[in-house]
Specification:
The complex is a heterotrimer of chains A (295), B (261) and C (342). By secondary structure, chain A is mainly α. Chain A has helices spanning 2-30, 37-55, 59-82, 90-112, 126-129, 142-164, 166-176, 178-183, 188-214, 221-236, 241-261, 267-281; strands at residues 131-135, 138-141. Chain A is built from 12 helices and 2 strands; from the N terminus they run αααααββααααααα. In chain A, strands 1-2 form a two-stranded antiparallel sheet. In chain A, β1 (131-135) and β2 (138-141) form a beta hairpin. Chain A is globular and about 55 Å long. Chain C is an all-alpha fold. Classes of the chains: A mainly alpha (295), B alpha/beta (261), C mainly alpha (342). Chains in contact: A-C, B-C.
Chain lengths: 295, 261, 342
């Protein structure tokens, strides 16, 4: 039982991690909590299903297409809503982010309705719902296996992009010191756009995985996932990409175990409690640099 | 002569960067001390340590708030202000969207007492204090020559006036020690001239002044004693003449070999 | 102050007092008016944090819920009078406000925003799951209306608030009370300390302001006002359910103060009038287009983005500046003018 919970938690945690890196990367480059990220995640799921249903595209191409569309969406959000406020007070950008989040959520409600929608069953490979392998008492489904492999591949890819490519170096430079980065000839806006694209496509992928895993999606699914993924990002150390990955996994496992052994009603509150504890005890997170008020 | 501030072996480390390395000096009561050095020498870091914004990594700072000197390293900024250390900032930090008067009234915060209930109930004591605050603030504004602009928005003031307002705000807390961080930066010669008069007037009010300044003419003309920092290390200390002729100081400012040129 | 503006104010006051007596004021119209008052109090209370201290509160309605459920539970289970419940609920709200803000006191405002974002969630979870106390998702019906009972004075007189009209007047009183308190605080040592924290925390600390203490006072005060609104609402609507206190409501209140201009007390009231009225209109209009009524938040979200981009001071910046008219400042202005002339 415990082992099974652990594996289920890991599945959830990897998905949280995928969303959390989007928060943390954007925070790294423009120091903004992008509240709209949860909505991009939700759009990912809905766009994927819409593409499958209306164009008859198979699951995997539809997934790639939805991720691409969400990348575009992320870049547009930044360009239209956040970019004009780069020099404005921080509160203005933060409030705008909340506004964008609510706006997108309601757009989704108008397009797809306010009731939960199931994931298109026929598009999901049969192997996903079967047991892929069993380890003692633990049973891992094909979909879970796919989630492990897919998220791990994404994380490795992301780490490579950040550490080995030119644009990744620019992202890290920007996170260190935006002014200096601009002086060094880095095209700041392009790097920010790239960050949004990258984070948004990963968020979209997470949305699709969650929708498949629970076989349901709704216009409001971004809210809870958003809070939790942000909690994961804080847990790992906001601004730190490996931290967000670790934070997501820790939070997913903690939540699943907590729901199993402590209180299932407060399942959603657990992530929040973990976050408060982290902020109280170690605000820089598990892997982050020290924060505190800037002097 | 009494010592008002004693810096003893103060070091400040930021990660791998040693911003201040074992710096010691004394500030004499009622006098003006100049803290000079090239950019990045650690002057503002020293101010931030004294004013309670940074906690020194090592060393002690003792301040004589009247009576026995107390060790103040690691106190919070508001505690330092309460004890009698006020400061201005290198890059002016006024409350820009508030009127000039309010900037000074806020500067006087720690010498007033009314809180939540006074404000809500508008007690007699509260009303009297508010009235007094306005009068006192006007005096400080008058002192720096800004009384007639008391109700203007502080961000609408000229650069020189903003610097003067910052000084008025700092003085409003009735400091014993005033830290001025580059008060003449960006001023034209006339404004600098009247700043010198202002600093002399401050000294006459029995306030001790520590001054960071790049304008050497200004520093040499008003400071009796100078401390020179370079790369976080104190390289010289003494009167203006001594400092002007010190080869190490010349080298720090003009580069190697300049002393012999 | 000119005689003209005083006359206008008097006229406005008369209009507000006479409103329930007008032929057009049905129970529905009065109901909406009372709703506006509840939100006006919420908006003024929320305004303390983003408007005065530059801290974004995304879970303000949590205190509304705490106040409402405190009133509901104490009234139903212990038969307590409204007038006893109010201070208790406000005190509990203040305590919760300080506890919520405390973990973030040493950190930047972003941490506060995210903690408050989760706070609403936790309050709703609590209200939903602690069925022994709150009756859970079924809600809490049968809360008694407000009454004025003078038996404790030995006078046998009792008045029950049975229609919207007494709530209207009590609501008006509540709005006036909170408004006066807010204006007085804004123009005081405390208010100036908050504004200095909003402008520049480091400079504020260097002026001798204890940031943690003053932020804590703001947390407590803002939350107490929210709880007050909740108390009133519980005894007015006589029914409570956890769903009323979800994030949406916090967003709506935030939208009101953004509309009126952050930090603008008059603006908070104007914002609540505009958005509640707009909400009522949209509630009727939206179904005609086959849209769920929740989609009115689409308009609110868009409004918020546009205001931040184009009119960050709110849509009526001219109605700001309450404190600038205080007696002391008016006197000073006259004095300075005289000195300049003389």
């Amino acid at each position: 039982m415990f082992e099974q919970q652990l594996f289920n938690g890991l599945t959830l945690g990897l998905i949280y991690a995928l969303i959390a890196v989007g928060y943390t990367m954007v925070y790294g480059v423009i120091e903004l909590i992008n509240f709209a990220h949860g909505e991009v995640y939700m759009f990912g799921a809905f766009l994927c299903v819409t593409i499958i249903n209306s164009l008859g595209v198979p699951l995997f191409p539809a997934m790639v297409l939805a991720m691409g569309l969400c990348a575009l969406m992320g870049v547009s959000i930044d360009h239209i809503a956040y970019k004009p406020l780069r020099k404005a007070p921080r509160l203005a950008a933060l409030i705008t982010a909340i506004g964008v989040s609510i706006f997108l959520q309601n757009i989704a409600m108008i397009i797809w309705g306010s009731r939960p929608v199931p994931f298109t069953r026929s598009a999901v490979p049969a192997a996903f719902s079967e047991q892929a392998f069993a380890l003692g008492s633990v049973s891992v489904s094909g979909l879970q296996l796919f989630i492990y492999l897919f998220t791990t591949a994404m994380m490795i890819g992301l780490t490579l992009i950040i550490n080995k490519t030119k644009v990744g170096t620019a992202m890290r430079a920007l996170a260190q010191n935006a002014t200096a980065a601009a002086l060094m000839g880095i095209n700041v806006n392009r790097v920010i756009a790239f960050t949004f694209a990258l984070g948004s496509s990963l968020g979209a992928a997470a949305g699709i995985l969650v929708a498949m895993y629970y076989n349901t999606m709704s216009a409001t699914m971004g809210y809870n996932a958003g809070v939790k993924a942000f909690a994961a990002a804080v847990l790992g150390g906001i601004g730190s990409v490996p931290g967000a990955m670790l934070g997501g996994v820790v939070l997913g496992v903690a939540e699943t175990l907590g729901a199993g052994y402590v209180s299932s009603q407060y399942r959603d509150g657990l992530g929040y409690a973990v976050m408060i504890a982290v902020i109280l005890l170690r605000p820089s997170g598990l892997l982050g640099k020290s924060v505190g008020q800037k002097a | 002569m009494d010592t008002i501030l004693n810096i003893d072996g103060v070091s400040k480390r930021f990660g791998g960067l040693l911003a201040l390395a074992d710096v010691s000096f004394e500030v004499k009561k009622g006098h003006i001390l100049g803290l000079i050095g090239p950019n990045g020498a650690g002057k503002t870091t020293m101010f931030n340590c004294i004013a309670g914004i940074y906690t020194p990594t090592e060393g002690t700072i003792t301040f004589d708030k009247g009576g026995a000197p107390v060790s103040v390293g690691g106190s919070r900024p508001e505690q330092m202000t309460q004890m009698g250390v006020a400061r201005t900032f290198q890059n002016i930090r006024l409350f820009g969207s508030l009127p000039v008067l309010d900037n000074v009234r806020i500067g006087r915060h720690c010498r007033a007492a009314q809180g939540f209930w006074g404000a809500v109930l508008r007690t007699k004591a509260q009303k009297a204090e508010e009235k007094l605050l306005v009068e006192q603030s006007l005096e400080y504004l008058d002192f720096v020559g800004l009384k007639h602009k008391a109700l203007d928005l502080s961000s609408s003031l000229s650069y020189g006036d903003q610097r003067r307002l910052e000084i008025a705000r700092a003085l409003a807390s009735q400091p014993k020690l005033l830290l001025l961080d580059e008060p003449a930066a960006g001023m034209n010669p006339q404004e600098t001239g009247s700043l010198v008069d202002l600093i002399h007037a401050i000294l006459e009010k029995d306030v001790t002044v520590v001054l960071i300044e790049h304008d050497m003419k200004l520093v040499m003309s008003i400071c009796e004693h100078l401390v020179v920092l370079d790369h976080g290390v104190k390289i010289a200390e003494g009167g203006p003449r001594e400092i002007r002729e010190n080869p190490e100081v010349i080298e720090a400012y003009l580069g190697r070999g300049a002393a012999h040129a | 102050m000119t005689g003209q503006s005083t006359a206008l104010k008097l006229l406005g006051l008369c209009a507000l007092l006479a409103f329930p007596l007008m032929p057009f004021s049905s129970e529905y119209v009065l109901h909406v008016a009372v709703l506006i008052m509840v939100y006006a109090v919420l908006a003024m209370g929320l305004n303390v944090l983003p408007g005065f201290c530059d801290l974004l509160d995304l879970g303000y309605v949590g205190f509304y819920g705490i106040g409402a459920y405190t009133a509901g539970i104490l009234s139903l289970n212990y038969d307590m009078s409204f007038w006893v419940v109010v201070p208790l609920a406000a005190a509990l709200g203040a305590l919760c406000g300080v506890l919520r803000g405390a973990p973030t006191l040493r950190l930047s405002g972003d941490y506060f925003a995210i903690v408050t974002f989760g706070f609403t969630e936790l309050v709703v979870l609590f209200l939903t799951n602690e069925i022994w106390l709150t009756r859970g998702p079924l809600g809490m019906p049968g809360i008694p209306p407000i009454d004025i009972n003078l038996s404790w004075l030995g006078i046998d007189w009792r008045y029950d608030f049975m229609s919207e009209t007494p709530y209207y007047y009590l609501g008006l009183l509540m709005v006036a009370f909170v408004y006066v308190v807010m204006c007085r605080i804004e123009d005081s040592r405390l208010g100036r300390a908050w504004l200095s924290i909003k402008e520049d925390p480091l400079a504020a600390a260097s002026c001798g302001i204890n940031l943690m203490a003053y932020k804590s006072v703001a947390f407590a005060f803002s939350a107490a006002v929210g709880a007050l609104a909740g108390c009133f609402m519980a005894r007015w609507s006589m029914f409570l359910a956890p769903d009323v206190f979800k994030f949406w409501e916090s967003f709506l209140v935030l939208c009101m103060i953004v509309l009126g201009g952050l930090g603008n007390i008059n603006g908070a009231i104007v914002g609540s009038v505009v958005l509640i009225a707009l909400g009522e209109v949209l509630r009727v209009v939206l179904p005609h287009f086959g849209l769920p009524t929740e989609t009115r938040f689409l308009a609110y979200g868009l409004l918020m983005i546009l205001i931040m981009r184009f009119k960050p001071g709110g849509i009526f910046p001219a109605i700001a500046a309450t404190s600038k008219k205080s007696r002391l400042i008016m006197d000073l202005k006259a004095r300075l003018q005289a000195e300049r002339a003389g």
